[in-house]
Amino acid sequence: MRSASRLDGIGLSLIRQINALATPLSVNLGIGEPNLRPDETFRAMARRAAEAPWQYSANAGFLSLRKKLAEKTPFDPAAEVCVTAGVQEALFAIFQAWVDPGDEVLIPDPGFLSYATMAKIVGAKTIPYDLEPPSWTIDVAALEKKITKKTKVIIVNSPSNPLGAVIDEPALRAIAAMADAHECLVVFDEIYREIWYDAPPPSMMGMSPNVIVANGMSKSHGMTGLRLGWLMARADLMKPIISAHQYLATCASVFSQTLTELIFTAEDWNASWLMRVREQFTRQREAALAAIERDLGARIEPPAGAFYAFAPVPSCDTVTFTKTLATDAAVLIIPGVAFGKNGEGFVRISFAANLDQIGTGIERVGRWLAGAGR
Ligand SMILES: Cc1ncc(COP(=O)(O)O)c(C=O)c1O
């Protein structure tokens, strides 16, 4: 039997394909998952959350949690916040609610590969906009030239997966103004907002009534498997999103909702947790940058956020190269081209791993590049 045509050509992503080659001996620098371990306070909060009732919540999530999330934001928790099963489901709900077949969606290249896939599933056309090395900044004027009457959504991701780049405030303001002038939506994916190095990244929150902000607990709190995200947008944008979310998920896991509320209520603990997270990633970033310079001979601009280094490799077919590394050198990294054509010639190295793994993994890549691994 034939599956629905909307899924034609949509298979296992390159990231999943490479991760599927992992063995117990592999060093995994391929996964976008933080290596964070909950402390005793965090575990105690999870035990308390498990004691709470397990029934459905309101579709948009517990009002008490929405109130907590909306504190210090311009959004009304009753009508402008929706708690979702992770940012992935949140983005899918936005596409279901706002994007028609034939609409155009502007996506970053290189960028998180789900954006293009989700646009394709709803029959939209993806229009990549270029992010260019070495600093991977957005050329705002070039982006505006890509807007047409059919443009429905501009996706903006900062800090970026796979680049670790942060978009500066003037560029974000220019994009917000563009959305107003051309009457399109901006989806601002700030899932890596809490993972930064020298300065907190600017947010698009409140920059325009056309901005939908997406965030969640996966990266900041290592809660990837607990599936908890949220969206904030003005009420009339949010209404159809909540309808889509209702049929996709009914509601986010009530366990994860309660846990998230406990976390944000424990303000002092949460502040110290986030500080420790940033300290840990700072050490891991330094180790990755040093190893990339030493073993790959590349000096890259330090990522300003997230936990990815996007490093150039000498000209080769990077898909075959990374698959061979996975099977023959037991190290997993992702070919840059998995994130768009501008990623050709680069690999994404996730430094969400312990210092030993970072050193060993990158050294193995270097040895392979030097020919010693062959
Ligand atoms: C840029 C970006 N957005 C969204 C997601 C999805 O996150 P979640 O676990 O909340 O679904 C990821 C996960 O890797 C990501 O890198």
Description of the molecule:
The chain is α/β, with parallel strands linked by helices and 374 residues long. The protein folds into two domains: 5-38 and 269-364, Aspartate Aminotransferase, domain 1, CATH 3.90.1150; 53-266, 3-Layer(aba) Sandwich (Aspartate Aminotransferase, domain 2), CATH 3.40.640.10. Helix content is 40%, strand content 16%. The protein contains twelve helices and 13 strands. The chain has helices spanning 14-19, 40-51, 63-70, 86-98, 114-121, 140-145, 169-182, 235-249, 254-265, 267-296, 318-328, 355-369; strands at residues 27-28, 81-84, 104-109, 125-132, 137-138, 151-157, 185-189, 211-216, 229-232, 308-312, 331-332, 334-335, 346-350. An eight-stranded mixed beta sheet has the order 2-9-8-7-6-3-4-5, with helices on both faces. It has a three-stranded antiparallel beta sheet with strand order 10-13-12. β4 (125-132) and β5 form a beta hairpin. α2 packs across α9 and α10 (267-296) packs parallel to α12. The longest helix has 30 residues, at 267-296. The relative contact order is 0.18. The mean pLDDT is 95. Pyridoxal-5'-phosphate binds at residues 32, 86-88, 112, 157, 161, 189, 191, 216, 218, 224, 229.
What's this, in brief?
The protein is about 40% helix and about 15% strand. The protein has about 375 residues and is an alpha/beta fold.
Give me some keywords for this one.
single chain; 374 residues; alpha/beta; Aspartate Aminotransferase, domain 1; Aspartate Aminotransferase, domain 2; 2 domains; eight-stranded mixed sheet; three-stranded antiparallel sheet; 12 helices; 13 strands; 40% helix; globular; binds pyridoxal-5'-phosphate
